Amino acid sequence: MRTSLSILLAAGLLLAAPAGHAQVRKKAKAKPAAARPATPTPEVASAPVSDSVALRKIFNEALLRGESYDNLRYLTGNIGARLSGSPQAQLAVEWGKATMEKAKFDRVYLQEVMVPHWVRGSKERGEIVGNKDKGVKVPVCALGGSVGTGGKLKAGVVEVHSFDELKNLPDAAVKGKFVFFNRPFDDALIEPGAAYGGAVEQRALGAVEAAKRGAVGALVRSMTSARDDNPHTGTMRPAAIPGAALSTNAADRLSLLLKASPELQFELELECITLPDEKSYNVVGEIRGSKYPNEIITVGGHLDSWDLAQGAHDDGTGCVQSIEALRLLRAAGFKPERTLRAVLFMNEENGNRGGTEYARLAAENKETHVAAIESDGGGFTPRGFGLEADAATLAKVVKWAPLFKPYNADDITAGHGGTDIGPLKEGVHPKALIGYKCDSQRYFDIHHTAADTFDKVNRRELELGGASMAALIYLLSKYGL
Prior knowledge:
Layout: H1 5-11, H2 21-28, H3 49-65, H4 68-79, H5 87-102, E1 107-119, E2 124-129, E3 135-138, E4 140-142, E5 153-160, H6 163-167, H7 171-174, E6 178-181, H8 192-199, H9 201-212, E7 217-221, E8 243-246, H10 248-260, E9 265-270, E10 273-287, E11 292-302, H11 312-331, E12 338-345, H12 353-364, E13 368-374, E14 382-389, H13 391-398, H14 401-404, E15 411-414, E16 432-438, H15 443-446, H16 459-479
Parallel strand pairs: 5-6, 6-7, 7-8, 11-12, 11-13, 13-16, 14-15
Antiparallel strand pairs: 1-10, 2-3, 2-9, 4-8, 5-9, 10-12, 14-16
Helix pairs in contact: 3-16, 4-11, 11-16
């Protein structure tokens, strides 16, 4: 972005509040009309009626006056891709701090963290080369952390679907070739995240395993069920050979042509490079607890994104929802009993150094964390929450599920908390790590691709997600764990 953030702030172009916003908030503070006493149904008998009213206020504020969508529009449109170490990542840090200050949190500050600085380079080219050097160009992209090819790299190809299959191949079948990892998603699985988990090791470790066998490079099928021409990037473990993702259409084509002509070759050209680490920051905003200020509830998303698009669903939505969750509580007139923190973590995508540093500082400062919530599954329709917690804690939160039922966000089960908040398990030990769950069926169509843009985000879905997170924070703040 050419225009500096300071100029935008001075010009009043950044984070402008909608017309009439102050007046709307004033009206929201008026006392609600007295509700007719109602006999609670058995499933909500343990939940005070006031909690139902409180959640309704939160959702009303989000749906009628929500700010997530407009904040995301600015982040994605004016800053865009935010890979760790890039100038855009620094602009995003400044944006996050300014956004929290505008929301009038009690305290806004930065946590310094050193992050990797990998640069993709301007040239990415892949071509299937057949008999008489007839070529078919196919969509490719470098995997994050890959080395470059040092010009054009051309070699034969051997296709495998697992590390065991690679291990069982004779040396002559692998040495001097590209290893093509072509394990698809298991489309029989209902949750796409499970399919991702079953395939992603070939992206993370494929180049490492191929290098052990003397291969010159690794080609990996993109992590998606979609059949299209969008290659999906993502981090890979450091290896001496380059690693690149093929779009699913390209992978299918290469596999088909290999069956017909096992001697064909692949030509790859990448210009990526790793530079020295850069200084960056987590962005932290707090609302101090009125009764138990030393007990902390953290909510966050990761501010960095891959560099192919705008990082809208991954994880711009999680960032704006985390800020919005705290803003909603304040706008609805609630004073949290426990201290609330919104954290925009830096470097989840290719290192998780922001999450690690946040946990280190929390342990060093002997902080008490009741719970941590993460939104990193996209900004789609809310479904509920997944918890990493002991049985008693899980049971307590599950009892709140009926309060979320009117909003179709009552799927509260054991599950994964999140990458950024994961390091809190060591040394801090929150009662629960909580992952925001939304409808993920479309997520891996755009995950880590050039298609992850603002136009893919629906306003209502995004605002409902922030409200769901705010509602859970309200209950955690009021009752603890």
